[in-house]
Amino acid sequence: VRLGGEVVDLRALHEAGALAGLNVPPRALFGARLDGVLALEPAAWEALRARLADLLADGGARVPTGARHRIRAVTLELPFTVADYVDFYASERHAAALGRILRPGGDPLPPNWRHMPLAYHGRSGTVRVTGTPVRRPRGQLPRPDGPVFGPTERLDIEVELGAVIGGPPSDGPLAPADAGERVFGYVLVNDWSARDIQRWEYQPLGPFLGKSFLTSISAWVVPAAALAPHMVPAPAQDPVPLPHLREADRRVPDIALEVELAPAGAPPATIARTNARHLYWTAGQMLAHLTSNGATLAPGDLCASGTISGPGDGEGGSLVELTLDGTRPLRLPDGSQRAFLQDGDTVTIRGVAGEGAAAVHLGEVAGTVVPAG
Amino acid sequence: VRLGGEVVDLRALHEAGALAGLNVPPRALFGARLDGVLALEPAAWEALRARLADLLADGGARVPTGARHRIRAVTLELPFTVADYVDFYASERHAAALGRILRPGGDPLPPNWRHMPLAYHGRSGTVRVTGTPVRRPRGQLPRPDGPVFGPTERLDIEVELGAVIGGPPSDGPLAPADAGERVFGYVLVNDWSARDIQRWEYQPLGPFLGKSFLTSISAWVVPAAALAPHMVPAPAQDPVPLPHLREADRRVPDIALEVELAPAGAPPATIARTNARHLYWTAGQMLAHLTSNGATLAPGDLCASGTISGPGDGEGGSLVELTLDGTRPLRLPDGSQRAFLQDGDTVTIRGVAGEGAAAVHLGEVAGTVVPAG
Q: Does ipTM surpass 0.95 in this model?
């Protein structure tokens, strides 16, 4: 558990007797990952969280010294074992922006977009923790005379929020309100994308190698309960969705998201600001859709929102949007331009809900591009 | 390990000392699933297989009685924990048949199809063992006035062969010949599909809920080594693929596949016969493609071929092909007709390589359709 600039070791808390009386098997707390906690019932998460909130209050004065470590002294690892990774497409601005680029002159949104939270399965085996180098992928790049194989020339980011699922596996379809309660917490996600590979491969089966080389997530899962005070009404929906996707009180998290790009050896520049409150579909609706055919929702599932874009200039959650498919490169403070990422670039996404002392920080997800191997 | 109509317990073999001297940690043999074996190096699989072949020869006369169980006395479970599940689209006849149905008048094959083995990620959490009931999924069904939500009216099968990956996780792109050596063995796959849900949802992100309700696999993983004598030259490729997908000796398994459909209370009828030798892309090419962007191949990954269809009548690996999208229903011996599956129908897929005493049986994958919940 993170406590400001420190890390508190749950095993040491347990051994000091500070977690006594909770209905949580100690083994759930001892793993290198949160898997044991995610497998517990939501009531157990809540009990654990309440105890930790109590222990960690007042700057952690009640935490035994031996259970505290400076964050710089620990190596951050993947916080949980990813079961299935599903990537949604829940931001209207993003879907419409891509539609205008990919299908100029047509309706920017696909005909099914307002009826269901579209999604596809990503590669769970290449979800990695923040800081993992971003090896520029090779792939088939479209050319007038046919494809060639080489390093992507259109390496991009996607700013997303990921819902981390906990609790026993679901059995049958879930209503949005019930499905939302399966969300243990949230991580920041950067779903690195190779736009040229993606464009050539994605018809008719959807994105595959343009995405599967790497998906980065932040090292800390922020409990959904911590974000509860920061849930705000979701955008209105027209048409009203089918009954199984209707939710009485649709809310989305008010998380301000900021994207920094730092060329090698140069200071970082903020290239985008957006907010998770722009998501058209709520987490409950996305998960209700996912389970509507009877598919099981299991602990460790990662359900990402898809790229989160806002309505204004500089609010795109990907370079393909910010640069209009590379036609209007960004100008960086060091004088360089970026249509897509160059080797040596570091991208950092940060998220925060609220302000001041009550702010809930989602940490960061960062990665530096290294040349194709 | 299966021995005719019996099952041999590896743990009992170990305890009887019959596996002594192998460089295989006993713990790898003791799990309820093959996960421990899949994590070993290929040399260890080979050593284990050689020892078992020796022990099980002559009808198993050298197998201690306590290590043998009649197959009817055991419950078959999922043979391995599925890591990532990737479904390819490697049968030319199938891709072209679907193209003619979905894009009438156009080129039946997508423009990228002959350049790469197309694929998408499926839901690993809903891969189940043969015999699991097939609950008819609900979903959004397209109607002229907009979608409605209800049980699928176009429940279908997909006859596939699944490559089960073993060995340490890969690090970087693999050449086809090296990638092919990562295949520990094969299972039969029925990738149940709801064609109406699929058709409405699949643009632009690919299949999702039309597939994710259930994928069934056979209970036994047949080692690739056992199929080695049954590998035959793969269909010629035009154009020659890009260098990273070229393979000197392209081979596919000569596995005869048979599909039976039995209405509730009626005897089964064979509705299709096809063969895995029709696959246009080899397993090595598929896995080379999958890793070409640097994606890791990990033990427990399931890489299915996609529907396997042959060139003749009655050789389609799905009902949508066999019935021309439902327009030419099959006539069954009990007098009924089938455009798509009805509740109570049992579908069984069997596979066998070779004939007579030397035949290698892949067992079966079966499921009975039960009404929507």
A: yes
